[in-house]
Amino acid sequence: MLVKGLLEPKLSLHIAYALAGVSLVLALLMPTLSARILCLLAIFFSWEYSAPPLRLEALGLGEFTVTLVLNTLVPLLGYCLQSGGLQPHPLLLVLIPLGIIEYIRMMVMNMADWESDATTWKKTLVVRIGIENAVKVHGVGMVLAYLSLIPLSLWGVPLLVILALASTAYMGLRYAYRLQQGAWRQKGTMWRIPYVASTHNGLGGSAALIGMILLKPGFSPAALEFFPLYLYLGGFLLLKLMARLKQPPPAVAA
Q: SS3 for the chain, per residue?
């Protein structure tokens, strides 16, 4: 909206301050001390991702910050609110592979803009270590994320949840392999990779959630818990169909 001029920068900043104030009030209204702390930490790191004085993304800590907020603090907050506290539970170990996937997903997001970022103050992790090293780290991270499912199964994570997460491996390993083969050099198609990475990231979390829901006694496919998952998967299939329709037809030899 800012780029298109639909919103004035000053107005955008005022809205951000107002929403931050609302978030702080809601955080302080959380029912337990642990929930309040988790909320305040999530707000702090979310704000400092790109805002001064820290600007964590520009310090090469953007991937860490996003993973900390979206794949650690927010799930822990949900668990805390539903269980009444932060008691240890084997299912929390699922955050390990999901956190790795989120981390390397954010690396992909920064790969798309690494050249322009390198000419500004925005020294992301990809800029700092170099695009080729970033691609290697991404590949190792993807393999590590799915290999971590093996010890998780030994540490008490239910097999159904492990299998649900493992079902997303093909999609993740496939696009990681494409990056290793030099897809990041192809400017005409590189823009697709961040969309695939984000979709894979969301599907991983959805798969784990589906596995957890299936463990509930007396579950039904019509259960309310499945509704947002149906919306997400429906949107994924729709976007995939639209991407195929946009592809140019193959050239016909004369």
A: CCCCCCCCHHHHHHHHHHHHHHHHHHHHCCCCHHHHHHHHHHHHHHHHCCCCCCCHHHHCCHHHHHHHHHHHHHHHHHHHHHHCCCCCCHHHHHHHHHHHHHHHHHHHHHHCCHHHHHCCCCCCHHHHHCHHHHHHHHHHHHHHHHHCHHHHHHCCCCHHHHHHHHCCHHHHHHHHHHHHCCHHHCHHHHCHHHHHHHHHHHHHHHHHHHHHHHCCCCCCCCCHHHHHHHHHHHHHHHHHHHHHHHCCCCCCCC
Read off the pLDDT of residues 94-126 as tens digits, 9 standing for 90 and up.
999 999 999 999 999 989 888 888 888 778 899
Question: Domain residues of the chain, as ranges?
Answer: 24-87, 98-243
pLDDT for the residue 210: 83
Dump pLDDT digits (tens) for 15-38.
999 999 999 999 999 999 999 999
